[in-house]
Amino acid sequence: MKRDNEASGIVKNVACILAIPITVFGLYVILHGHLTPGGGFVGGAVMATLIALFLVSFRKDMIKGGMKKSFSLSETLGLLAFISLAFLGISATFFHNFLANTDLFFGTIVPFGSNPGYLGTGGTAPLMNIAIGLEVFSGLSLIVLLMAYYKPGGEGND
Amino acid sequence: MISLPFIAVIILVSMALFAIIFKRNLIKIVMAVHIMGSGVNLFLISLGYTEGGIAPIFTNAPGMQMVLPTPQALVLTSIVINIAVVALMLSFAIAIYARYGTFDTTKVRLKG
Amino acid sequence: MLLAAVLFVHPLGKPPRTEMDDYFILNGQAQTGCNNIVTSVVFDYRGMDTFGEATILFAAVAGIFMVLGEKNEKGQ
After folding, report:
1. Is C38 inside any structural domain?
2. ipTM rounded to 2 decimals
3. When comparing pLDDT for B14 and B66, which is higher?
4. The domain containing residue C48 runs over which residues?
5. Angstrom distance (rounded) from CA B66 to CA B56
6. Which residue, of A3, A58, B10, C32, has the fewest CB within 10 Å?
7. B109 CB near a chain A CB, below 8 Å?
């Protein structure tokens, strides 16, 4: 029995099928931010379209409205990770890239000129990309969820 | 004569300015603010173009001159700030509709 | 006025080269190790702007929380 604000069966099935390629593509754009165009902001926006797709194609009481607390927690964690990565290089300047050209976590040396991209380079730039991607994804999903579950409660004092 | 991206910027910004001043519906005003922000971003990117240039990325790059990378970095920041401003304006529009029941800006006046 | 602002700008395709952009293109790959020069400008050479932008996004979401949040009424 189909209600008024519910999409048909085709849209629901395709939305469930499309969830995996959208997530994989968003993670690819975030993680390869230092080799191809893209980065943290674009990848976070791509992954936030998944929440909007699920809100449009299903009814409102089929999705848990209590996701706001977990998204708010992940957004603050993303911003704190970005700030702590900025403060770790405080010995030279504020945003010093302390992992580049060393032999630590992300720092192999890149040959000069055009080359096929190597994933283990770049220093603190891929780590910052991951933190910003988490924050943008949580922030945009929180905006869409807050606008969808709004109840104008109470009367104005007129 | 003036090149093509600059003509597009003039059309976008003037149409958005006309809509902000002369329209009465609140949703149209918010959409016009967003269009004006996009026009300004287009103007900033098209300022840094060298003739026959490629994107400033070294992965599998043919050896030619590169376009300037600095305006592209600033436009990335500007796009995200536009999103934040338009989202806040839309939430105010939702609260106004729940309180007054209309989107017309001549009928929404502070009572007091 | 908009026509005057666009007519006085330089014609498309010949921008004035500054020393800053030449330094970014020549030394960006050796110093930071990123193949993408725009990423190295956004996150390493001008990281302060990205820091301010992340703060603006966070503050906007906090403002929307305040306007569209849930109000729990306390009865008498």
Report:
1. yes
2. 0.84
3. B14
4. 29-65
5. 5
6. A3
7. no
